[in-house]
Amino acid sequence: MNWSKAIAAALLASGLGTTLVHAQSSANQAASSYPSRPIRLVVPYPAGGGLDVMSRLLGDRLSQSLGQPVVIDNKPGAGTILAAELVARSPADGHTLMITTDATVTINPHLYARLPYDPVKDFAPITQLVLLNQLLLANPAVPADNLKELVVYAKANPGKLNYASYGSGSQPHLAMEMLKSQAGVDIVHVPYKGIPQAVPAVLANEVQMTFSGAASSQAHLKAGKLKALAVGGKNRMPLLPDVPTFSESGFPDVPSNAWFGLFAPAGTPRAIVLKLHAEVTRILKDPEFVQKELLAKGYELVASTPEEFAVFLVADSKRNAQAVKISGAKVE
After folding, report:
1. Same domain, yes or no, for 171 and 288?
2. At 165, which CATH number?
3. In which domain, by residue range, is 263 found?
4. Residues in the chain with pLDDT values less than 50
């Protein structure tokens, strides 16, 4: 897939553009009465995870501000593909939305040989909600207290360390393979089914490392059962100010963060997209919400405009294309 400025334009056009005056008038009229029935918010992951929790927090507040119920519909399976296809085929009227991660839009196109949806043409970006800056976690037995020390040890002990991922093409897999490539080290990949399996494996020293968010690892870090060697993002995490970033450690290109984003089906009237954007970003930027639901869980607020989100998607897809190529991950 040739991701370029033209694709950024296509992303915007997919849900945000109309050149006909009468079409714009109809869209504005639709937005004025929107929503006219309950909103279905599709989540491509099981209940209980970080994205599901975020969707329910937003859904509760959106239902209050928009005056209609927001129904959370968990549709896990096939690497988020089932949910994405459902939303891509839904009416473009703002009553079916998708909250998802980078996997759906900027990783899957490079990982899968074929997809039943087009990540560019089938969705209208509304806003990038937050960044999830990932921690490189290690068992305390690993003789390194930061990423630079880990690289030195790994170079001296090729193949003796291993790391857990959530499967081929998952964020930990792509991040560690990029790190291995750039650092010139040999660390063995051990895939697990998900975070609920990977983090306990590191705790038990079955594997030495994995990537995870602060929300699911903070208690283990405080108890000294895990240690954080590096963190994604441009700046250090307020929850863990002593942990250096990947950039500080000399590896700025490691894809060490994920994100949550909100999408509508392509063709959703611009007025409805902008109404949703305004309501969602108002909720996200509420000081109480920021402190209690974002900072306390290690999330970094983004709340971008639809246009900013579309441009970001192009850059993120290019980054993930490189990471998938280096990892060798492919799903037929």
Report:
1. no
2. 3.40.190.10
3. 5-132+257-327
4. 1-4, 6, 18-20
Query: How high is the pLDDT of residue 306?
Result: 98
C-alpha distance from residue 295 to each of 77, 195, 214, 233 (Å): 29, 21, 10, 14
Q: Which residues of 140-155 are buried (b: 16+ CB within 10 A; e: fewer)?
A: eebebebbbebbeebe
Provide φ and ψ at 318, rounded to 5°: -60, -40
Any residues with CB less than 8 A from the CB of 316 and at least 6 apart, and which? Answer: 102, 106, 259
Specify whether 88 is located in the same domain as 145: no
- Determine whether 85 is exposed, middle or buried from the number of CB atoms within 10 Å of its CB (0-12, 13-18, 19+): middle
Per residue, the 3-state secondary structure of the chain, as one string, reads: CCCCHHHHHHHHHHHHCCCCHHHHHHHHHHHHCCCCCCEEEEECCCCCCHHHHHHHHHHHHHHHHHCCCEEEEECCCHHHHHHHHHHHCCCCCCCEEEEEEHHHHHHHHHHECCCCCCCCCCEEEEEEEEEEECEEEECCCCCCCCHHHHHHHHHHCCCCCEEEECCCCCHHHHHHHHHHHHHCCCCEEEECCCHHHHHHHHHCCCCCEEEECHHHHHHHHHCCCCEEEEECCCCCCCCCCCCCECCCCCCCCCCCEEEEEEEEECCCCHHHHHHHHHHHHHHHHCHHHHHHHHHHHCEEECCCCHHHHHHHHHHHHHHHHHHHHHHCCCEC
- For the entire predicted model, the pTM comes to 0.86
Q: Are residues 124 and 262 in the same domain?
A: yes
Task: Note the pLDDT tens digit of each residue in 191-250.
Answer: 987 777 889 999 999 999 999 988 878 899 999 999 999 999 888 998 899 999 999 999
